[in-house]
Amino acid sequence: MKTTMTALAFGLLASGASADDQMVLPAGCTAIATVQKSQCHATTVLDCGDRKEAHTFQDGGYRVIHVYKPDWEMTEFRFAEMGGARMTAVPDTGSNIRLSELLETGSSEEDGVFLLNTGVIRDRKYTLEGRVELTGEDVDIGGATFKKGRIYRTFALKPGAGGLEFEVDLYVSPERDLMFEASWQRSIFGNNLETFDQAPVSIAWPGDAGFMATRPEVGCE
C-alpha cells in the first residue's frame, strides 16, 4: 500500500520559520533534511561524519536528540524533559536496528545494554529488548519514498522483567539514506501510557523553505 502526502501539505509549511527559528548546527555536522511534523514538531537530521543525529523540536524548543552510527544503529537519545534523561549504549554489548537486515527481511531484533543518566541518576543499567518490523506500507513524503515501520523497545532493569516501554513509528528511505522516528508511545511496566503525536507532514530539503526550522507554522498556535 502506498500513501502520498500532497503538495498542499507542504504548501502549508512553505512560509517556514524566520531566521530566529533556525537550529544551530553542531560543529562538523551538515543538515540533510528537516521533517515537518504534527503538533508543531520539526526534526532535522544531520550527517556528522562519524555519526548521524536527529534533533527534534516542538514550538521552537528542544524535545529530544537521537544519535546514531553512520549505518543508523542508535547509540544514544537525550530528552529535554524527564530531568534531561539520557540513555547511552554500552559499546559491544549488542546492536539496535540492523538496517540492512530490516530492509532485506522486513524485521530486525534489538538488544544490548544502555546506561540511564539524569540530574539525580548515574549510570543505571538497563537491558534493551526490542524488535523492528516493516508494515509493508510505502509513503511519499517530500518527493521521497519511505518504508514505514514500527519499533517495539523495552529497557528493563532485569532481562524479561519489563520496564520503560516504547512503541515508535519509523520511516526509512534507502535511496536517500534517511531514517527518522515519528509518533510514539511510552509506558512504565505497561502502566501510565503516554502518546506523543509526531506524524510527518512534509520534508524540507536543503534550499527549501522550512529547512532547519525549529518551529513549523502548521500545527502551531
What does this structure look like?
Keywords: Signal. It comes from Sulfitobacter sabulilitoris. This is Lipoprotein. The chain is mainly beta. The protein has one domain (2-204). 6% of the residues lie in helices and 53% in strands. The chain contains two helices and 14 strands, in the order E-H-E-E-E-E-E-E-H-E-E-E-E-E-E-E. Strands 1, 2, 3, 4, 5, 6, 7, 8, 9, 10, 11, 12, 13 and 14 form a 14-stranded mixed beta sheet that branches. Strand 12 (178-188) and strand 13 (191-196) form a beta hairpin. The two termini are 33 Å apart. The relative contact order is 0.22. Mean pLDDT is 87; it is low at 1-19.
Number of domains: 1
- Distance from N terminus to C terminus (CA atoms, Å) equals 33 Å
Report the mean per-residue pLDDT as an integer. Answer: 87
Supply the number of helical segments: 2
What are the secondary-structure elements, in order, as H or E?
Answer: EHEEEEEEHEEEEEEE
Determine the strand fraction and express it as a percent band. Answer: over 45%
Protein name: Lipoprotein
Keywords: Signal
Features:
2 helices, disordered N terminus, 14-stranded mixed β-sheet, 221 residues, mainly beta, Lipoprotein, single chain, signal
Short description:
The protein has helices at 7-13, 99-105, and strands at 2-4, 30-37, 41-47, 52-58, 61-68, 74-79, 86-89, 107-117, 124-141, 144-156, 163-173, 178-188, 191-196, 200-204.
Give the topology, please.
Layout: E1 2-4, H1 7-13, E2 30-37, E3 41-47, E4 52-58, E5 61-68, E6 74-79, E7 86-89, H2 99-105, E8 107-117, E9 124-141, E10 144-156, E11 163-173, E12 178-188, E13 191-196, E14 200-204
Parallel strand pairs: 1-9
Antiparallel strand pairs: 2-3, 2-14, 3-4, 4-5, 5-6, 6-7, 7-8, 8-9, 9-10, 10-11, 11-12, 12-13
Signal peptide: 1-19
Protein name: Lipoprotein
Organism: Sulfitobacter sabulilitoris
